[in-house]
Amino acid sequence: MSDIDRDKLNGYIRMVGGSIAQGFNCAISAAGEHLGLYAAMADRDSATSEELAEATGLSERWLREWLRHQTVIGHLDFDAANQRFSMCDEAAMVLADPDSPAFLGGGFDAVLAAMPSVPKVEEAFRSGLGLSYDDHGEACAHGIERLSAYTQKYQLVPQILPLVDGLVDRLRAGIQVADVGCGGALSTVTMAAAFPHSQFTAYDISTHALDRAAANVAEAGVDNVRLINPQEVPMPSDATYDLVTTFDVVHDTPFPEQLIADIRAALKDDGVWLCEDIKSFPTFEQNLEEHPMAALLYGFSVMVCMSSGLSAPGGAGLGTLGFNEEVARRMTKEAGFENFLRLDFDNPMNNYYAIRP
Ligand SMILES: C[S@@+](CC[C@H](N)C(=O)[O-])C[C@H]1O[C@@H](n2cnc3c(N)ncnc32)[C@H](O)[C@@H]1O
User: Is 50 strand, coil or helix?
Assistant: First the structure.
């Protein structure tokens, strides 16, 4: 023990203590989010715990501890002279406004949904077999839907689709579209509402995702969307679709080579595959040194994405960072796609590709 560097040891104690604290941060922030506390704080310049209790009808003592916790972790600010808590506009965009491009609120639910799976994940380390999306329960599907909601509701139609040559005109005129791995189908519903002459088929293998999708289709009142589980009715292999979309699906799926081949077979020769997938570097060394979100993405990978990719025997388990541009170019070329274009759309998390036969 005499060789132990005390400063280094203290550094590790602080770091690991911080990791443990982050587990609590997610749980307590999720509770606050569900109770509408971020929205309540964003609505007022500042508040005491008594004022917040008055406004929300919740217990003052619990609110006081929540406010203190949220201040200590940096979500809120505290004016000691007046004993008042507040939320700055920037924090409100990330925590309180689901329609903001910076909103991350759904992420707490996705993390919490994965937590009860720890014993199953331990077993997965032994067996090699991961958990499917459905193994995590409904909350995971909902959390992921909320995380991707802004892009799908507000950016997909006005900003992303126009980057694909000629696509918007074809959608307006009326084409056949498959949204594969649709999740809650916000992408499908948004496109279906914008392009009523086109027909949309949304595929997902998760029953929780398809339940969310059915609710979103009903709420939007669109009649040009049908939902299909491809394990029951496989995608057609006779060049049916003019457009196939995948939003963060290929890195998750157990058999990406098969999925890409299925997309090729389902796509017309003059069709296009719009593929969104996680932005990452080709090597771990680069992700370690340069990826600003590597910790978050490797966390998602072990608990959700790689696990999903290993949820069937022989699954590829690409992982969250495993379908980067280099891999995407190679795998799509091997499947017979000749034309690969990365679209010029700035997003911190994802790349967008227009891939054509
Ligand atoms: C990360 S989620 C993305 C969901 C949605 N596209 C979004 O952006 O919110 C990936 C989805 O792909 C689905 N999935 C994975 N492999 C699939 C396959 N081969 N066919 C259809 N869906 C698949 C999963 O069930 C899950 O709902």
Answer: helix
Query: Which residues partner with 85 through β-bridges?
Result: 47, 78
Q: Model confidence over 34-83: pLDDT tens digits?
A: 999 999 999 999 999 999 999 999 999 999 999 999 999 999 999 999 99
| Nearest residue (CA) to ligand 1, atom 25 | 206
Q: How confident is the model at residue 243 (pLDDT cuts 50, 70, 90)?
A: very high
Alpha carbon separation from 125 to 118, 120, 133, 323 (Å, rounded): 11, 9, 17, 22
User: How many Cα atoms within 13 Å fall on the side-chain side of residue 71?
Assistant: 19
In a domain, 107, yes or no: no
Q: Residue 352, exposed/middle/buried by CB under 10 A (0-12, 13-18, 19+)?
A: buried
Is there a domain that residue 104 lies in?
no
Nearest by Cα to 283 from 249, 324, 245: 324
Nearest atom (ligand 1) to Cα of 254: 16
Residues 200 and 319 in one domain: yes
User: In this structure, is residue 1 part of a structural domain?
Assistant: no
User: Is residue 70 within 6 Å of ligand 1 at its C-beta?
Assistant: no
Q: In sequence order, what are the beta bridge partners of 272? A: 243
pLDDT value, residue 1: 60
Higher-confidence residue: 18 or 348?
18
Q: Structural domain of residue 275, as residue ranges?
A: 112-356
User: Is the Cβ atom of 213 under 6 angstroms away from ligand 1?
Assistant: no
Alpha carbons within 13 A on the beta-carbon side of 20: 6
244 and 311 share one domain = yes
Query: Which pLDDT tens digit goes with each residue over 326-355?
Result: 999 999 999 999 999 999 999 989 999 999
Question: How far, in Å, from the CA of 56 to the mean position of ligand 1?
Answer: 37
Specify whether 352 is located in the same domain as 215: yes
Quick check: is 302 in a domain? yes
pTM of this prediction exceeds 0.90: yes
Q: How many domains does the chain contain in total?
A: 2
